[in-house]
């Protein structure tokens, strides 16, 4: 250990690459995990004064893994709250219906459309947040509202699911949202899913008593369990953010291992003499291995200690951007997470030790005789370990790529990332095989010139050095081309696919609102669907399904004497084991139940189930229409604007694309930053170690410019090798992705190669490589004079 | 000088070392029988490619012989695992190389203490200083190799090689990278270790003046001992033998 410390202190420069790689890796992981752990579910603020909450029962998890709740009808909710209010210790029980309400200012819908979906509340629920009437009176009748920041008596234009309205402000409240009379709120919302209790005394005792009253009709939550009442939209936002953070941690860890491993391998190769000397004076292979582990332990501990504060201090700065890009919910704050810091520290050290493992193993086997030889010439570039690792990762990566079409679409992106990592590792391990023929080929035109000869012979002798430099370039180019290419190819296909499904040329689309209000839809000549959610019970199981309310003309004639039948598409009919004439037991969004006969089964039926629009509207008063396909001139409405079908689809694609672009930007930025570091470090190390060689060249009459030409040419050669291999892997993988998409869609798909991004990344690598070789040469020549 | 009566520090019995295989086989050592008695100073000379470095490596257990037996301080090395062999080398063999012998990160004292520490032993108080004192560098204990001259570095290397009191010290061209004065200093040190402490020293060199410090000079050619001189021998005599050897008339000399 003392020896390790002396080594590290003496030749810190040689360990700088490992240090920086681990420090940055720890910073990235610490920052990302701090944010990840800070982002926990939290009960909405408006339940702050309700220590006990009762939630409507769940029927099980849906396809997203979220619990699917059934609503209480208004009647059920009022009855239940009445019973709860009578419990000892309960000061009030408030039914909490939620509905869409958005303020209109100067004819334009104001505020965030998604927030508006949950902005409407019943006045009695204001007490759950501890919000009090600051002025005026509580709302009593239709068209009356209490809000914050508007003087009582004002007239306030708003949009609701029914259409535009002008409400009278009767009072002001010190909390966010629109508070209307309880009866009005129940009328505008689709059932009730929460009843809040304000409590005088022991909350747990009240919760226990409440459980007795509620029974199977709901779930009583108190204390930390209240956090599960986080709105689904917030949960999804955090989930998105978590995906990015997880990807960052995985990629950060992977690239750190990669960089540490290549740095250590090169370092060990350069220290062959020193290690041979240690072996000659009596160090056993185990002692050499332990020495290298100890050195890495020292370096990585220092690096991790440097990286931790960097990550912990950067994390809070990212709060704003994360909320702005919709990756964390509004009001998100980063808190200190000791577990994240401790975990990152351990990860950093473990990653560094893993990175040095191969190099240490190889170095410890170096025969002691090496100390006696001027061994600048490598014996073998390819070791059995390299062969095995290369072949294994190549096989695994290929397997992953081939099985990709069989995977769920959601798993395909992570499978693609995994395949890319494996294949790139394989390419890096097997790189020495192709370097020799490649070098011969590339230098052939200059075989007569001194520079050409030096570059050629220099690189052929030091294949490993070239491989070490090429590896990070390979990683960057491969990752960038593969990731952006995959996204671009799938994007391209998706856009066409979605546009194919839109027959009408002009649509009426939401404008600053989460969806179209009923009056805006009714004013148009055209067709539209009203999205809602149904709980369908078949046998012993109940599950939630997306459904759409459709006009009678589209539903077609029903079975004799029934007007309320549903139309299913083939997939849904199979899920539900239903055929024409089967009666489905459904529960509407508002909690009421119905028995609906299946009137037809078609190849396509909207989201899978079509119900009569009238019924959908009646049972889901808060539902909003996503768009109207127009077959007449558009009629101007608040919060709606006409546009071409293609534009409408494009907006949706762009919204999704923006997020994906952000993901790509972060991940590629991370990779490029890291590999830039690796390229620079490798070349700095390699060039510095070639001091004697350059001295000999100078003595033999080479000018500074000639030496620079040789080193630059070698650097470019390494970048070229990395680029070729990386691009090769990427294009092969991209073809796999394309095959997967083609198999899925059963038609030819164009391969989109992201030339611009690739060029930018290659240029960055080239600049870094040239700078990293030129600087040590220049610095030395100055100090030599 | 007594030689024959001392027990052997290192013994080679029918040692053969070949490189490569088939038609391209190169024989570096050809059925060599040699004894390096304890307490003697042997110089090994011979033209390039005569096998003198290979002899040193095999005798020191750094390289394994293709055939025959190498016995270091009574222990046959054939069949020893790398770990056991390393331990044997660490305890019984000292080595001095031509150049760049020291671990650059460590001070002179730390370099000398290295074999002891690698053996898991804490140097006794004054042990390292005493060793450095013997090579005349007590005052340089805290200097790093880069702060020492070539001769001083080589003397530190000798101190390091002798600190374990090995059965035999091998030196591979120890003066090859030094100027004449520094070289003489190093040779005097080696000679003194034999005379004062009964150290066994085996030195490969091509310099007749260096070889003149030895009790015995072996001449190697094509992997065989083709000539030898015993007793204090003059550099001129050695140079003469060397020259004859290189003219390709070893047989005549032997007779």
From TrEMBL, chain A:
<feature type="transmembrane region" description="Helical">
    <location>
        <begin position="752"/>
        <end position="778"/>
    </location>
</feature>
<keyword id="KW-0472">Membrane</keyword>
<feature type="transmembrane region" description="Helical">
    <location>
        <begin position="244"/>
        <end position="269"/>
    </location>
</feature>
<feature type="transmembrane region" description="Helical">
    <location>
        <begin position="339"/>
        <end position="360"/>
    </location>
</feature>
<feature type="transmembrane region" description="Helical">
    <location>
        <begin position="420"/>
        <end position="442"/>
    </location>
</feature>
<feature type="region of interest" description="Disordered">
    <location>
        <begin position="543"/>
        <end position="564"/>
    </location>
</feature>
<feature type="transmembrane region" description="Helical">
    <location>
        <begin position="662"/>
        <end position="686"/>
    </location>
</feature>
<dbReference type="InterPro" id="IPR003838">
    <property type="entry name" value="ABC3_permease_C"/>
</dbReference>
<feature type="domain" description="ABC3 transporter permease C-terminal">
    <location>
        <begin position="666"/>
        <end position="782"/>
    </location>
</feature>
<comment type="similarity">
    <text>Belongs to the ABC-4 integral membrane protein family.</text>
</comment>
<feature type="transmembrane region" description="Helical">
    <location>
        <begin position="297"/>
        <end position="319"/>
    </location>
</feature>
<feature type="domain" description="ABC3 transporter permease C-terminal">
    <location>
        <begin position="247"/>
        <end position="367"/>
    </location>
</feature>
<dbReference type="GO" id="GO:0005886">
    <property type="term" value="C:plasma membrane"/>
</dbReference>
<feature type="transmembrane region" description="Helical">
    <location>
        <begin position="387"/>
        <end position="408"/>
    </location>
</feature>
<protein>
    <submittedName>
        <fullName>ABC transporter permease</fullName>
    </submittedName>
</protein>
<feature type="transmembrane region" description="Helical">
    <location>
        <begin position="707"/>
        <end position="732"/>
    </location>
</feature>
<dbReference type="Pfam" id="PF02687">
    <property type="entry name" value="FtsX"/>
</dbReference>
<dbReference type="InterPro" id="IPR050250">
    <property type="entry name" value="Macrolide_Exporter_MacB"/>
</dbReference>
<feature type="compositionally biased region" description="Low complexity">
    <location>
        <begin position="547"/>
        <end position="557"/>
    </location>
</feature>
<dbReference type="GO" id="GO:0022857">
    <property type="term" value="F:transmembrane transporter activity"/>
</dbReference>
<keyword id="KW-1003">Cell membrane</keyword>
<keyword id="KW-1133">Transmembrane helix</keyword>
Automatic annotation (TrEMBL), chain B:
<dbReference type="Pfam" id="PF00005">
    <property type="entry name" value="ABC_tran"/>
</dbReference>
<dbReference type="InterPro" id="IPR017911">
    <property type="entry name" value="MacB-like_ATP-bd"/>
</dbReference>
<keyword id="KW-0813">Transport</keyword>
<dbReference type="InterPro" id="IPR003439">
    <property type="entry name" value="ABC_transporter-like_ATP-bd"/>
</dbReference>
<keyword id="KW-0067">ATP-binding</keyword>
<dbReference type="GO" id="GO:0022857">
    <property type="term" value="F:transmembrane transporter activity"/>
</dbReference>
<dbReference type="GO" id="GO:0005886">
    <property type="term" value="C:plasma membrane"/>
</dbReference>
<dbReference type="GO" id="GO:0016887">
    <property type="term" value="F:ATP hydrolysis activity"/>
</dbReference>
<dbReference type="InterPro" id="IPR027417">
    <property type="entry name" value="P-loop_NTPase"/>
</dbReference>
<dbReference type="GO" id="GO:0098796">
    <property type="term" value="C:membrane protein complex"/>
</dbReference>
<dbReference type="GO" id="GO:0005524">
    <property type="term" value="F:ATP binding"/>
</dbReference>
<dbReference type="InterPro" id="IPR003593">
    <property type="entry name" value="AAA+_ATPase"/>
</dbReference>
<dbReference type="InterPro" id="IPR017871">
    <property type="entry name" value="ABC_transporter-like_CS"/>
</dbReference>
<feature type="domain" description="ABC transporter">
    <location>
        <begin position="10"/>
        <end position="247"/>
    </location>
</feature>
<dbReference type="InterPro" id="IPR015854">
    <property type="entry name" value="ABC_transpr_LolD-like"/>
</dbReference>
<keyword id="KW-0547">Nucleotide-binding</keyword>
<protein>
    <submittedName>
        <fullName>ABC transporter ATP-binding protein</fullName>
    </submittedName>
</protein>
């Amino acid at each position: 250990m003392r020896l390790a410390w002396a080594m590290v202190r003496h030749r810190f420069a040689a360990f700088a690459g490992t240090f920086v790689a681990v420090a940055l890796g720890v910073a990235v992981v610490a920052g990302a995990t701090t944010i990840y752990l800070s982002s926990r579910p939290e009960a909405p603020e408006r339940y702050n004064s309700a220590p006990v909450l009762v939630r409507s029962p769940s029927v099980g998890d849906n396809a997203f893994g979220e619990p699917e709740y059934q609503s209480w009808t208004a009647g059920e909710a009022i009855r239940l709250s009445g019973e709860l209010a009578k419990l000892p210790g309960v000061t009030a029980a408030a039914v909490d219906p939620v509905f869409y309400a958005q303020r209109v200012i100067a004819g334009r819908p104001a505020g965030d459309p998604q927030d508006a979906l949950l902005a409407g509340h019943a006045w009695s629920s204001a007490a759950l947040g501890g919000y009090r009437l600051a002025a005026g009176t509580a709302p009593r009748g239709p068209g009356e509202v209490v809000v914050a920041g508007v003087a009582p008596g004002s007239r306030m234009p708003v949009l609701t699911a029914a259409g535009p309205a002008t409400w009278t402000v009767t009072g002001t409240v010190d909390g966010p949202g629109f508070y209307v009379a309880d009866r009005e709120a129940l009328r505008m919302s689709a059932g009730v899913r929460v009843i809040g209790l304000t409590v005088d005394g022991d909350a747990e005792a009240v919760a226990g008593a409440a459980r007795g009253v509620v029974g199977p009709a709901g779930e009583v939550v108190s204390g930390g369990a209240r956090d599960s009442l986080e709105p689904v939209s917030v949960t999804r936002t955090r989930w998105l953010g978590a995906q990015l953070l997880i990807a960052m941690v995985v990629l950060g860890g992977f690239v750190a291992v990669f960089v540490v491993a290549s740095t250590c391998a090169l370092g060990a190769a350069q220290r062959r003499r020193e290690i041979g000397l240690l072996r000659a004076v009596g160090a056993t292979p185990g002692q050499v291995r332990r020495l290298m582990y100890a050195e890495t332990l020292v370096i990585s501990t220092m690096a991790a200690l440097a990286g931790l504060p960097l990550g912990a201090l950067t994390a809070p700065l990212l709060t704003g951007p994360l909320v702005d890009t919709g990756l964390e919910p509004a009001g998100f704050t980063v808190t200190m997470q000791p577990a994240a810091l401790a975990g990152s520290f351990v990860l950093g050290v473990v990653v560094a030790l893993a990175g040095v493992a191969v190099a240490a193993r190889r170095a410890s086997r170096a025969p002691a005789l090496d100390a006696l030889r001027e061994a600048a010439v490598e014996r073998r570039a390819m070791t059995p370990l390299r062969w095995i690792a290369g072949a294994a990762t190549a096989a695994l990566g290929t397997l992953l790529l081939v099985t990709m079409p069989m995977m769920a679409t959601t798993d395909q992106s992570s499978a693609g990332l995994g395949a890319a990592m494996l294949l790139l590792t394989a390419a890096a391990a097997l790189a020495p095989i192709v370097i020799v023929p490649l070098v011969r080929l590339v230098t052939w035109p200059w075989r007569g010139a001194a520079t050409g000869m030096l570059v050629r012979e220099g690189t052929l002798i030091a294949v490993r050095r070239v491989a070490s430099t090429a590896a990070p370039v390979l990683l960057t180019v491969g990752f960038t081309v593969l990731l952006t290419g995959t996204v671009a190819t799938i994007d391209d296909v998706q856009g066409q696919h979605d546009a194919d499904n839109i027959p009408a040329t002009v649509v009426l689309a939401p404008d600053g609102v989460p969806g179209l209000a009923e009056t805006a839809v009714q004013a148009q000549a055209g067709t539209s669907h009203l999205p809602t959610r149904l709980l369908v019970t078949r046998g012993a199981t109940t599950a939630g399904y997306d459904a759409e309310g459709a006009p009678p003309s589209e539903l077609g004639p029903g079975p004799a004497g029934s007007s309320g039948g549903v139309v299913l598409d083939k997939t849904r009919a199979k899920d539900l084991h239903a055929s024409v004439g089967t009666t489905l037991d459904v529960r509407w969004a508002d909690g009421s139940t119905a028995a609906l006969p299946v009137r037809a089964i078609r190849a396509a039926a909207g989201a899978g189930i079509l119900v009569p629009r009238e019924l959908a509207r009646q049972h889901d008063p808060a539902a909003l229409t996503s768009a109207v396909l127009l077959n007449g001139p558009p009629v101007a409405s608040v919060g709606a604007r006409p546009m071409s079908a293609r534009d409408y689809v494009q907006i949706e694609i762009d919204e999704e694309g923006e997020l994906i672009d952000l993901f790509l930007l972060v991940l590629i930025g991370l990779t490029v930053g890291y590999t830039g570091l690796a390229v620079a470090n490798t070349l700095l190390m390699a060039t510095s170690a070639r001091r004697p060689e350059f001295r000999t060249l100078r003595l033999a009459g080479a000018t500074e410019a000639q030496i620079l030409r040789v080193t630059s040419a070698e650097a470019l050669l390494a970048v070229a090798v990395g680029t070729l291999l990386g691009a090769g892997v990427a294009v092969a993988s991209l073809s796999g992705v394309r095959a997967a998409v083609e198999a899925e869609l059963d038609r030819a798909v164009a391969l989109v190669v992201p030339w611009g991004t690739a060029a930018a990344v290659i240029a960055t690598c080239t600049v870094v490589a040239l700078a990293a070789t030129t600087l040590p040469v220049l610095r030395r020549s100055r100090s030599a004079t | 000088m007594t030689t024959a009566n001392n027990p052997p520090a290192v013994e080679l019995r029918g040692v053969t070392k070949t490189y490569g295989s088939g038609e391209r086989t190169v024989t570096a050592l050809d059925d060599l029988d040699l004894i390096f008695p304890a307490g003697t100073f042997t110089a090994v000379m011979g033209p390039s490619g005569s096998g003198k470095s290979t002899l040193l490596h095999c005798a020191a257990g750094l390289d394994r012989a293709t055939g025959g037996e190498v016995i270091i301080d009574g222990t046959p090395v054939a069949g020893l695992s790398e770990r056991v062999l390393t331990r044997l080398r660490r305890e019984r063999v000292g080595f001095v190389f031509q150049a760049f012998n020291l671990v650059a990160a460590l001070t002179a004292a730390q370099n000398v203490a290295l074999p002891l520490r690698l053996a898991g032993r804490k140097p006794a108080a004054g042990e390292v200083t005493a060793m450095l004192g013997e090579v005349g560098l007590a005052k340089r204990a805290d200097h790093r190799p880069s702060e020492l001259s070539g001769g001083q570095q080589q003397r530190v290397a000798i101190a390091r090689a002798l600190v374990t009191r090995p059965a035999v010290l091998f030196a591979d061209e120890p003066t090859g990278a030094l100027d004449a004065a520094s070289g003489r200093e190093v040779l005097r040190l080696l000679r003194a270790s034999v005379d004062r402490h009964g150290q066994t020293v085996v030195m490969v060199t091509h310099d007749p003046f260096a070889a003149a410090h030895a009790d015995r000079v072996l001449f190697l050619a094509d992997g065989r001992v083709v000539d030898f001189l015993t007793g204090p021998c003059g550099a001129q005599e050695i140079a003469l033998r060397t020259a004859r050897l290189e003219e390709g008339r070893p047989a005549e000399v032997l007779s």
